[in-house]
Amino acid sequence: MRDLRKTSIRRPSLLHLLCAAAIFSLFLFATQTSFSGGNRQITKINRPDVQILSDFQSSVQQCVANRGLGLTAQIIDHCNLILKFPEGTNSTWYNEQFKIFEPLEYKYDVCEAILLWEQYRNMTTVLTREYLDARPDGWLEYAPKRIAQLGTEKCYNRTFCEEHLNMLLPAKPPFHPRQFRTCAVVGNSGDLLKTEFGKEIDSHDAVIRDNEALVNEKYAKYVGLKRDFRLVVRGAARNMITILNGSDDEVLIIKSLTHRDFNVMIKRIQNPVYLFQGIVLRRGAKGTGMKSIELALSMCDIVDIYGFTVDPGYTEWTRYFSTPRKGHNPLQGRAYYQLLECLGVIRIHSPMRAQRKHDWSDIPSRETIGRAHAAAVRLKKNQAGEAGDLGQFRNCKVWGHAGPYGSGPVSGSPDMSDVRKNSNYSKWEVMPFEKLRKAAQNHFAQMEGVSIYKMDGNKLDDLVCVKHTMKSEV
User: What family, per the record (predicted)?
Assistant: First the structure.
């Protein structure tokens, strides 16, 4: 009787185990059947791309070793690496928010960086009317964010917002990708006084400067005299008349917000004035200089930077023309700029690099960068489960349509001064298409007449794309 009870107890337990094993086997078989084809395809596609990106990482690592002045790159995988400063590097910047000194290591996703910065080569970085028209919330919610002291979070009255923005709102992009071959972005570091870069800076097709940086004979041999673009923060924009004195053609681009007082000043000057339209680089370098690089890359084939904090031993913030204000973390900036140079985004010039010949052979070539970019695109599509070739407009989240190149109203207002009315402030807006550099014309045709803008933050997929009517379609 006792044995019978034991047998009856064991039998259900054994049956349960057998059933569980059978169910698990069926589940495993079904799972493998469902995904084996997809996994084989992804593996087949990804392996060559992973190899391309791994080879590219090695090129970046070697570039950092050659050009980083002590920086080294530790590869984590085909996308991620860490830039490291040598032991003993003096970290003097204290982060009040996190209560720590500036770290000596910075991790970067190179795949995301390639996608972001190669995207910038095809973008517009000036706020336009067509951008606000295309965004579903353009005039209602986004426009008021660009107007200081508006007193409202939304523009229920579009005319009210237009009155604040008309002075610096072109209908269409005044500047285009590939418009210039070479551009110099000149920062404000006191290091500029250590090397006479003036003539070299002025030899560029366009020169971009920041905020109140002085340009005169006193500093000419160090920073040059050429003045084409100036990116300014809101505080510096209050002094725009003084800043722009002596250069009626210099384009002033306000980094963040406009202000009703700015409009009063703009009505009195001859210079073109616009608002910057860019992104937030949370893990990159900080400050106006970084935005100037964004601006330059959207217009120029080659971007050379001068006067940035890029040499070892930098322990205090300096400016070449005045007493400095509180600066940005130099190690974070130096690491990110070095990464950008080794991604082919910029070329760095500094006192410690001035003795070198201009040999850029250890920077990955455009062909190599192009292969890595294509591999990063395919890898991202696979990870997102996307199939097929979505083309060059794959990241367009919002579409708009506009008339032919050169159509639409120019920036301005009826109550401008005679000085501004009779000036050439709108020359970039009304420039005939045929006057653009040939490379810019070809790029416009290649992009099928589409202007691309960043929408929000630094998301790769948030683009506003505006299709212009091509001449062949008129």
Answer: Belongs to the glycosyltransferase 29 family.
Q: What pLDDT, on a 0 to 100 scale, did the predictor assign at position 97?
A: 64
Q: Which pLDDT belongs to residue 45?
A: 55
Which of 56, 53, 77 minimizes the C-alpha distance to 379?
A: 53
**Are the beta carbons of 369 and 436 closer than 8 angstroms?**
no
Residue 253 pairs in a beta bridge with 231, 274
What mean pLDDT is predicted for residues 2-7? Answer: 43
Is it true that domain 40-474 has CATH number 3.90.1480.20? yes
CA atoms within 13 A on the CB side of 149: 8
**What dihedral angle (degrees, nearest 10) is formed by the CA atoms of 335, 341, 344, 347?**
150
